[in-house]
Structure formats: structure tokens, C-alpha cells
């Protein structure tokens, strides 16, 4: 019996086209056995991840003058709130290393300012001192150190052109105006006549002829502004 010779064509779903012919069964060898191709591996070495990232937007502090409050007093009028910036980020990795990043969307919830009322009203009061009763318009708590003309960066003349010594103190002009008259318990009456690099905010420096023999140690003290 003679086998029928056929021509055929197989087309596999993966796109591989195979042409072959059949022949007599007696002539087919092991090498001619049709070997079907294995499916192509399609796993990608890339992967993507989506991340939602939130960034805090700090509220700002705004001071508002209040003529009904005494100077030196503060009161919170509005607490305000922090804002937030929300981003959706797509990150592409190649072999587990960052290959690309893309911001898909950004949404901002704005912050609301914190508003603080700051008193501007001047109220005159009196305080008993070794010099008698003195009128003052503001009482302040400060950190008081002391110095003389021989300190580093100092000389015999102050920032307002008067001689350095007892009765002259260094201040931060943003807090206490130069030439202001001041009463410092334990030190006496003084004029704000000097400045210094380390004198910032509620810090003052009490002048002496000789800081080494001065009867003063650095401490907090309530001072009184007289004019």
C-alpha cells in the first residue's frame, strides 16, 4: 500500500508559518518528525507603580494690630489650618531600578493663615523703686547679661555716640528703641544706648565700667520702659 503524498501548511497563533510534505511511511525518519515551536516568552522586564504623595503646606502667621488690647498682649483671632498638596505619581521600574517618573495629577488644598491680634494700646502704670514711684508704659521680661568697653568688638563709645559704662544698656532696636529710658531692678535707671551682635529679641546687655567686678549675674528680669 502506497501512502498518499500531501502538501500542507500550518500557521500557528504566534505567527510562525511551517510548510511540510508527507511522504511514504516507510521513508519517514526520526529527524523528519515535525517539532512544534515553543511559545515565545513575553514577560516584560518593566513594571509600573502608582503612588499618592501628600506634602504639607504650613500655615502662615499674620499679626493684626488691635487697639483695644494693651501693648505686649497677644490673642489668637483665627487658628487657621495647614494646606496639603496631593500628587499621583507613576513610577516605571526596569529590573527593579527607577527608569522614569511622571506626575499624573496635582491637587492643592490651600493653607489658611493663623491670625494673631497684637495689642497697641498704651496703659500707664506706676512701680515703686529706690528712686521713688516711677511711671512706666510697658513691662517686659528679658534675659540680662552684662559687659564693659573691653569686651571683644567693644570700645569706649556706644552706638548712639555716648560713653559706655554704668547706666547704658545694649538692646535690640527692633524690640526696644534706642534712647529709650529704662528701669532695671537690681541695676537702676538706664538709657538704651548700644547694640550688639548677640543682642537679639528679648536680650539686653547691662553696661559696667568693669564687668569682672560688676555685681550682676546673667538672669531673667522684668524691666520697665519709661518713655
Domain module count = 2
**Rg, alpha carbons:** 43 Å
Mean pLDDT: 85
Strand order of the largest sheet: 11-15-12-14-13-16
Order of helices and strands: EEEEEEEEEEEEEEEE
Counting copies of identical and different chains, the oligomeric state is single chain
Q: Given the C-alpha coordinates, what overall shape results?
A: elongated
CATH topology of the largest domain: Barwin-like endoglucanases
**Overall helicity:** under 10%
Poorly predicted runs: 1-18
Organism: Candidatus Daviesbacteria bacterium GW2011_GWA2_38_24
Protein name: 3D domain protein
Keywords: Signal
Domain G5: 43-122
Describe, in plain words, how this protein is organized in 3D.
With 227 residues, the protein is an all-beta fold. It folds into two domains: 46-119, Single Sheet (Resuscitation-promoting factor rpfb fold), CATH 2.20.230.10; 124-226, Barwin-like endoglucanases. It contains no helices and 16 strands. It has strands spanning 7-11, 17-21, 46-57, 61-70, 74-78, 83-94, 97-109, 114-121, 125-129, 132-136, 138-147, 168-170, 181-184, 188-194, 203-207, 219-225. The strands form five sheets. It has a six-stranded mixed beta barrel. A three-stranded antiparallel β-sheet has the order 3-6-7, with no helix packed on it. A hairpin with a 2-residue loop joins strand 9 (125-129) and strand 10. It is elongated. The protein starts with 6 loop residues before the first strand and ends with a strand. Mean pLDDT is 85; it is low at 1-18.
Amino acid at each position: 500500500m502506497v501512502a498518499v503524498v500531501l502538501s500542507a501548511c500550518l500557521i500557528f497563533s504566534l505567527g510562525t508559518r511551517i510548510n511540510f510534505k508527507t511522504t511514504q511511511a516507510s521513508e519517514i525518519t526520526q529527524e523528519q518528525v515535525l517539532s512544534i515551536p515553543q511559545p515565545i516568552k513575553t514577560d516584560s522586564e518593566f513594571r509600573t507603580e502608582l503612588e499618592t504623595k501628600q506634602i504639607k503646606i504650613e500655615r502662615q502667621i499674620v499679626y493684626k494690630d488691635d487697639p483695644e488690647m494693651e501693648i505686649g498682649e497677644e490673642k489668637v483671632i483665627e487658628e487657621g489650618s495647614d494646606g496639603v498638596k496631593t500628587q499621583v505619581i507613576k513610577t516605571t521600574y526596569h529590573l527593579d531600578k527607577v527608569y522614569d517618573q511622571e506626575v499624573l495629577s496635582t491637587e492643592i488644598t490651600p493653607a489658611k493663615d493663623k491670625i494673631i491680634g497684637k495689642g497697641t494700646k498704651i496703659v500707664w502704670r506706676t512701680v515703686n523703686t529706690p528712686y521713688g514711684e516711677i511711671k512706666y508704659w510697658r513691662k517686659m521680661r528679658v534675659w540680662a547679661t552684662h559687659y564693659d568697653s573691653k569686651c571683644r568688638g567693644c570700645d569706649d563709645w556706644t552706638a548712639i555716640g555716648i560713653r559706655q559704662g554704668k547706666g547704658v544698656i545694649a538692646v535690640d532696636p527692633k524690640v526696644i528703641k534706642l534712647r529709650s529710658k529704662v528701669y532695671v531692678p537690681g541695676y537702676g535707671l538706664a538709657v538704651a544706648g548700644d547694640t550688639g551682635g548677640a543682642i537679639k529679641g528679648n536680650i539686653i546687655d547691662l553696661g559696667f565700667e568693669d564687668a569682672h567686678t560688676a555685681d550682676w549675674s546673667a538672669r531673667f528680669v522684668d524691666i520697665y520702659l519709661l518713655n
